[in-house]
């Protein structure tokens, strides 16, 4: 099992420059063996040099122990090896030093230079020693053996550790590169996961808002009319029983329509649309639920109004007369005026325009009952404009105001802004209230 680069760095726990304790133990063991070897080789060296044997052994011990710093100062180890080549000691230190040098992160020219110096030094020393042995008669071979032995010995002591060190260094660098790449990919995946979670949370919030807006626009209007009719029913119950019966029938019809629409919405939210995937226990995406809820609400409105759907996916501008008629039936004086040539728009544009007028009339029922209201619709070249303005309510209707959650204007603004339009609302100088919206036709 491999570790990432971050784990590799945090795993360092050795003393001084060693990354791990076992690396320090390995170098200490190699240094001890090298010191023992050089100490033994210091005996013939002391005899050849004419110095006390103890001095030669001590020199060998000191030189061999240099291998302890091979990881931190590989150049120094190789230079010491080159320096003691004439003494014919430190063969283990030479092999390990050249391997460590080649596996290090030093520039290639430095590695090649030191390896070449070690090769030349070993070649010269071997050449001289073999020739001396032949002169003394210890070796009885042809003249060809001197260069052959020198080349073979120098290459055998230099090439294998250098090639092995180059291979190990390249493999180590490759592993470090893979670790860094793994760390980078892990960070990127984590960042992508965080962004995906943020986008999912944003989508969930958007769909919650859209579902709440749909439910508010579809149900609040009818409930407001129901309350207005109920108040009128209470006022005329004793004076005009026939009118009271008519108002009671209207309240019942609107209540049934509101319950139908609400049942359609809650059924979609509970079942997840058409029910696909319920048997497998799959969860329906919230975006699909929101779209299905909006479609179900639109179908419910169409059915309640007796239109039968007609293939329309949502309320349209052709239903404004019926919408205004419902408010007029509740006792409101509504004047509808249309400017420009009537034409069809995209479904979402007509639905947004219808909802703006519907919610504006609902607000008049809630906050200004009995006030005269003007609904203006203008078909322009590249946009459609609508305005709903009411006069100040009569004093008698002030006590009949309905409770409000304050979400109507927010929902209208969100609908219009989502289509790139402009929404403005506020009180008029005469004491009434005006709602204006402009939506691009495309």
Automatic annotation (TrEMBL):
Residues 168-206 form a coiled coil. Gene3D superfamilies: 1.20.5.1930, Histidine kinase-like ATPase, C-terminal domain. Keywords: ATP-binding, Coiled coil, Kinase, Membrane, Nucleotide-binding, Phosphoprotein, Transferase, Transmembrane, Transmembrane helix, Two-component regulatory system. Residues 207-272 form the Signal transduction histidine kinase subgroup 3 dimerisation and phosphoacceptor domain. The keyword Iron does not apply. The chain crosses the membrane at residues 49-69, 75-98, 110-128, 148-170. Its EC number is 2.7.13.3. The keyword Nucleus does not apply. It catalyses: ATP + protein L-histidine = ADP + protein N-phospho-L-histidine. Residues 16-128 form the DUF7134 domain. InterPro entries: DUF7134, HATPase_C_sf, Sensor_HK_TwoCompSys, Sig_transdc_His_kin_sub3_dim/P. One of its GO terms (molecular function) is kinase activity. It is an enzyme of class 2 (transferase). Signal peptide: none annotated. This is histidine kinase. It comes from Streptomyces prasinus.
């Amino acid at each position: 099992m491999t570790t990432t680069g971050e784990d590799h760095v945090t795993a360092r726990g050795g003393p001084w420059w060693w990354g791990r304790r076992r690396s320090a133990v390995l170098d200490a063991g190699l240094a001890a063996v090298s010191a023992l070897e050089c100490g033994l080789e210091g005996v013939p060296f002391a005899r050849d040099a004419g110095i006390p044997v103890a001095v030669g052994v001590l020199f060998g011990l000191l030189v061999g122990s240099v291998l302890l710093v091979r990881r931190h100062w590989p150049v120094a180890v190789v230079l010491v090896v080159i320096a003691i080549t004439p003494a014919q000691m430190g063969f283990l230190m030479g092999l390990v030093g050249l391997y460590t040098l080649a596996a290090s992160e030093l520039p290639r020219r430095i590695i090649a230079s030191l390896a070449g110096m070690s090769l030349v030094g070993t070649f010269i020393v071997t050449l001289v020693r073999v020739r001396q042995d032949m002169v003394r008669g210890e070796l009885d071979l042809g003249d060809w053996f001197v260069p052959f032995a020198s080349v073979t010995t120098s290459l055998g002591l230099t090439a294998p550790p250098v090639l092995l060190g180059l291979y190990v260094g390249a493999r180590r660098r490759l592993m470090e590169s893979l670790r860094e790449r793994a760390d980078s990919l892990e960070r990127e995946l984590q960042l992508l996961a965080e962004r995906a979670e943020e986008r999912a949370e944003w989508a969930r919030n958007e769909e919650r808002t859209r579902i709440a807006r749909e439910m508010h626009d579809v149900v609040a209007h009818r409930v407001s009319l129901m309350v207005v009719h109920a108040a009128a029913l209470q006022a005329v119950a004793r004076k005009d029983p026939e009118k009271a019966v008519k108002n009671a029938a209207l309240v019942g019809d609107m209540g049934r329509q509101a319950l139908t629409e609400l049942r359609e919405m809650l059924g979609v939210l509970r079942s997840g649309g058409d029910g696909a995937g319920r048997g497998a226990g799959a969860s329906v995406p919230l975006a699909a639920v929101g779209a299905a809820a909006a479609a179900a609400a639109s179908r419910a409105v169409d059915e309640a109004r007796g239109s039968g759907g007609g293939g329309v996916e949502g309320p349209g501008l052709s239903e404004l007369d019926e919408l205004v008629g419902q408010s007029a039936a509740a006792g409101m004086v509504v004047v509808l005026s249309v400017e420009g040539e009537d034409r069809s728009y995209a479904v979402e544009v007509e639905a947004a325009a219808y909802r703006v007028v519907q919610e504006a009339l609902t607000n008049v029922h809630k906050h200004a009952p009995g006030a005269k209201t003007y609904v203006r619709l203008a078909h322009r070249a590249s946009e459609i404009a609508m305005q709903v303005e009411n006069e100040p309510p009569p004093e008698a209707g002030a006590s009949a105001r309905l409770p409000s959650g304050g979400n109507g204007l927010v929902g209208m603004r969100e609908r219009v802004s989502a289509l790139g339009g402009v929404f403005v609302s506020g009180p008029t100088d005469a004491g009434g209230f005006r709602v204006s919206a402009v939506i691009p036709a495309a």
